[in-house]
Amino acid sequence: MAKDGSEHFSGGIGINTRLAHSGNNPHDYFGFVNPPVVHASTVLFRDAASMAARSQKYTYGTRGTPTTDALAHAIDALEGSAGTILVPSGLAAVTVPLLAFVSAGDHLLIVDTVYHPTRNFADTMLKRLGVEVEYYAPDVGAGIAALIKPNTKVVFTESPASNTFEVQDIPAIVKVAHAAGAIVMMDNTWATPLYFRPLDHGVDISIHAATKYPAGHSDVLLGTVSANDSCWKHLYESFCTLGCCAGPDDVYQVLRGLRTMGVRLEHHQRSTLAIASWLEGQKGVARVLHPALPSHPDHDLWKRDFSGSSGIFSIVLAGGGQKQQHAFLDALRIFGLGYSWGGYESLAVPVWLGDRVVAKAPYEGPLIRLQIGLEDVDDLKADILRGLTAAAAA
Ligand SMILES: Cc1ncc(COP(=O)(O)O)c(C=O)c1O
């Protein structure tokens, strides 16, 4: 890092240093270490000529501000991307690039284990706009070649899978997709760029629900979409066309969250692994679905490509149905029952797999997804035991 506080990280720098110093240069704003929160629609031009030529850095609030630039540059430093757009939610981080890159008559391949609202968007709006949507199994790997058609434009991946945590062979999929002229998008929310860097593995567009670990406190919705050189210009132009920009306070909060994300993730990782491996030996648990456990069918793939694991995974109860699932959830006192994840507090949700068309693996019993927060592991284990006892008695 240069003495003036500006960042010139060209490699060899630790991830927590990068998280602490990427994005803004404090000396661009009187030395204050954090960037200003710029609330703006109008930006004034000095004269008519510069207005006509749009020859200044900022031209209108929807197209970027010093606040959005600070976060976008920090994300670029993590993702190794040519550029990043910031959108109002993680779901918008899925829908905006899809709208940007598929058109009527195009074929879109989506992993069957995708985050449900992504499927809903594809099955409703994209189909209405004339896009042909097809789902593939998460273990497809190079076998995706058999599904590629002349009009396949995008292969959408999410790894590990929502709720069931299958790991995809991203490099194998990228190789086949690129040979066929299709681009690859990846929802990388689970790993964050700290534990998997999609663009390093050939992915063209990396998607992140920054609502989760970057925000980290269950109080902000935001999405980031980062592109490689060849996709960046089109992504940015489409973003401006849609006017789908994020609010400055939320952007600032996510940059603030990013500064501590490395240490929070380490804690999430440690506690989650301790709880997940302990759960493998608990009565009433048939299976633990966490790719960093050696028992997971995709563990070797995870180990090959990922450098860490985060804080959500699922358990399969040993038999029973919704009654046992609800008894487990209702007995919890520390885990809250609520959607989302990546915050400081533990959460549990019942898993519903009724939307899947290909990846319908039979499970021994109902599934419950756990998000492990920053609380003490012994307290969380005691809470889970309350759930297991209640499920057994139901
Ligand atoms: C994998 C994944 N992608 C995207 C999203 C959407 O994020 P948001 O809640 O910010 O819309 C979620 C939310 O749970 C998610 O789990």
From TrEMBL:
GO biological process, one term: L-cysteine catabolic process to pyruvate
Cofactor(s) it depends on: pyridoxal 5'-phosphate
Presence of keyword Lyase: yes
Residue numbers of N6-(pyridoxal phosphate)lysine PTMs: 212
SUPFAM superfamilies: PLP-dependent transferases
One GO MF term: cysteine-S-conjugate beta-lyase activity
Catalytic activity annotation: L,L-cystathionine + H2O = L-homocysteine + pyruvate + NH4(+)
InterPro entries for this protein: Cys/Met-Metab_PyrdxlP-dep_enz, Cys_b_lyase_bac, PyrdxlP-dep_Trfase, PyrdxlP-dep_Trfase_major, PyrdxlP-dep_Trfase_small
Keywords: Lyase, Pyridoxal phosphate
Family recorded in the similarity comment: Belongs to the trans-sulfuration enzymes family.
NCBIfam families xrefs: cysta_beta_ly_B, PRK05967.1
UniProt name for this protein: Cystathionine beta-lyase
Organismal lineage: Bacteria, Pseudomonadati, Pseudomonadota, Alphaproteobacteria, Hyphomicrobiales
